[in-house]
Write a structure and sequence with these properties.
Elements (H helix, E strand, L loop, with lengths): L30 E7 L4 E6 L14 E7 L4 H10 L4 H8 L6 E4 L4 E11 L4 E11 L3 E6 L7 H8 L10 H36 L3 H21 L2 H9 L11 H64 L14 H22 L4
Parallel strand pairs: 3-7
Antiparallel strand pairs: 1-2, 1-3, 4-5, 5-6, 6-7
């Protein structure tokens, strides 16, 4: 339940805008990387303090400030003060249990997304909150821990490939959102392969372990759906943002991300239906197997009932019974029992019960 629900009780009773980290506790220092560029210039560096990012706010170039780690409230608070970010936004950045959303604050847009990757070793989804602040000439991204899916965007900036170096900050924000959404497809492929393998195993050899795996995969799909579903609302907020923040030339690219999110959402719904159907198949298989066992036991009991009657009849301790003194009586009774069992088996076979 920890990945679907985060405890936020430590914020109870605190004033709005109080920056309190909600999430896994960490001891490593927060890392701040700054990429500054335009069509002609490019620089990339790691800064040791928030104060060194202050000139980026008024710089005519596009600046991307990436913060690895949201467990230090002081860093988030100082960045918020430096770039004029509302205290409620800083509070949401530090709280890693936020729902994916977008909010327009006039001179900047705040976006929260879930960055999802497939953990091959654990065979499960690894989810992380990413917060994006889009200003007129800067983009600030906050991540829970180092390591992300933004390497392709960094390479495009370094090598001046594509449109990113010739566009403004809004295009950079689009590129980051786009790579997060595109990575959902990779997760869907891995999840789809696992569902397909489980489906084949379920049809051939259903077991209780598969039932546990079915429930686990349903939780993974639920987590993915929770992360993807609000992306359409985020794109809608960006499309309605002031033109000074999001240029009209960026709108076609945002609509492309919207289409991708629709495809991801539809695939997730397909997976939900498949898993529900697989659960029905499992229950039907278990029920059919139980019915087969009961049918076999019933037939065996039906065969042994007349045999038990014959054995009980001749097992009575009466002194005068016609067949007791017959030399072949024992063998005759066994023959009658065998004949009765054979006749009943033939009858069951004729009726299609075996």
């Amino acid at each position: 339940m920890g990945r679907l629900y985060h405890r936020s009780s430590k914020k109870t009773g605190l004033p709005p805008g109080t920056v309190v980290h909600v999430g896994a506790q960490k001891a490593e220092p927060v890392r701040i990387n700054v990429i500054d560029y335009d069509t002609e210039r490019f620089s990339e560096k790691q800064v040791s303090s928030v104060t060194k990012t202050a000139p980026c706010r008024e710089s005519p170039t596009v600046t991307w400030i990436n913060v690895d780690g949201v467990h230090d409230p002081q860093v988030i608070h100082k960045l918020a003060e430096t770039f004029g970010i509302h205290p409620l936004v800083a509070e949401d950045v530090a709280s890693t249990s936020q729902r994916a959303k977008a909010e327009d604050f006039g001179d900047y847009v705040f976006v929260v997304l879930r960055m999802i990757r497939w953990d091959q070793e654990k065979s499960q989804i690894d989810s992380e909150q990413v917060s994006i602040v889009l200003g007129q000439n800067f983009v600030i991204t906050f991540q829970e821990h180092p390591g992300d899916v933004f390497d392709s965007v960094r390479e495009r900036i370094r090598q001046s490939r594509g449109r990113v170096r010739s566009e403004k900050a809004d295009y950079l924000a689009y590129a980051l959102i786009d790579v997060i959404v595109d990575n959902y497809f990779a997760v869907l492929e891995a999840l789809g392969e696992r569902i397909e393998m489980l489906e084949g195993e379920l049809v051939n050899h259903p077991s209780r372990a598969m039932l546990h795996e079915l429930h686990r995969l349903k939780r993974e799909v639920l987590l993915l759906r929770k992360s993807v579903w609000p992306v359409r609302e985020i794109i809608g907020v960006l499309e309605r943002a002031p033109e000074i923040l999001v240029a009209r030339s960026t709108m076609p690219f945002l609509r492309d991300v919207y289409d991708h999110s629709i495809r991801v959402a539809e695939t997730i719904e397909t997976f939900r239906d498949l898993l529900t159907g697989m659960l029905d198949i499992y229950l039907s298989s278990v029920g059919n197997r139980s019915n087969d066992i009961m049918r076999i036991l019933t037939m065996m009991m039906s065969i042994f009932v007349p045999l038990t009657f014959i054995a009980g009849l001749y097992g009575m301790n009466f002194q005068y019974m016609p067949e007791l003194s017959w030399h072949w009586g024992y063998y005759a009774s066994l023959g009658v029992m065998a004949a009765v069992a054979l006749v009943m088996l033939l009858f069951f076979r004729k009726r299609g019960w075996i």
